[in-house]
Amino acid sequence: MPPHEKSESLSGHLRQLLFSPKGGIEGLLLQVDSKPLQVSMEPGSVDANVLNDAVGKPIEVKVSADHSPKTKDGARPVYQLDSITKVAGKAFKSNGPQPISGVVANIHYARHGEPNGVILESGEFIHTRPPGMKKLKLQVGSTVVVQGEARTTVLGTALIEAREVNRVTLE
């Protein structure tokens, strides 16, 4: 979740999850100092199961005010999520650039049949895109160290958009 303009920290209670028409979580409705406010986010940027478990609990977030024309006449203030810092008083590690390492258990294929990444033994999907797989020549049993942007699949498992694998930069 990239930082937007000036970030600020907010503490309140997570009252409701806000869904996109496709069913992903695209926002949070928080109660902060007895006032409702909305925090928008990219669907899949935070594990849906974690967010579902956090409903009704205290939450701390870093946000940036959304001053876009679409939010001007909204029913409540709208912010963009930069990161979640605590849930129920415990530190929370948001998705975002994350290093991860592991052993390749399976090759993953795009819908047209080309290899486009790997599945690690620990379950993470490392998305390299087909040109990345050609460049890396990964096989089952290969050890990888990956840098990239973390998201969550619909099953709640990690998906890493690989930017670098084994010190090889991907485009």
Q: What does the model show?
A:
With 171 residues, the chain is mainly beta. Helix content is 9%, strand content 52%. The chain contains two helices and twelve strands. The chain has helices at 48-54, 129-136, and strands at residues 7-19, 25-32, 35-40, 58-65, 78-87, 90-91, 97-109, 115-120, 125-127, 143-152, 158-165, 168-169. The chain has a five-stranded mixed barrel with strand order 1-2-3-5-4. The chain has a five-stranded mixed barrel with strand order 7-8-9-11-10. The two termini are 20 Å apart.
Describe the secondary-structure layout:
Blueprint: E1 7-19, E2 25-32, E3 35-40, H1 48-54, E4 58-65, E5 78-87, E6 90-91, E7 97-109, E8 115-120, E9 125-127, H2 129-136, E10 143-152, E11 158-165, E12 168-169
Parallel strand pairs: 3-5, 9-11
Antiparallel strand pairs: 1-2, 1-4, 2-3, 4-5, 5-6, 7-8, 7-10, 8-9, 10-11, 11-12
**Topology pattern, helix = H, strand = E:** EEEHEEEEEEHEEE
- Tell how many strands the DSSP assignment holds: 12
Radius of gyration: 18 Å
End-to-end separation: 20 Å
Derived from helix and strand composition plus strand pairing, the structural class reads: mainly beta
Instruction: Please bin the fraction of helical residues.
Output: under 10%
Strand content: over 45%
User: How would you describe the shape?
Assistant: elongated
Total helical elements: 2
Low-confidence stretches: none
The average pLDDT value, as a whole number, equals 86
**Biggest sheet layout:** 5 strands, mixed, barrel
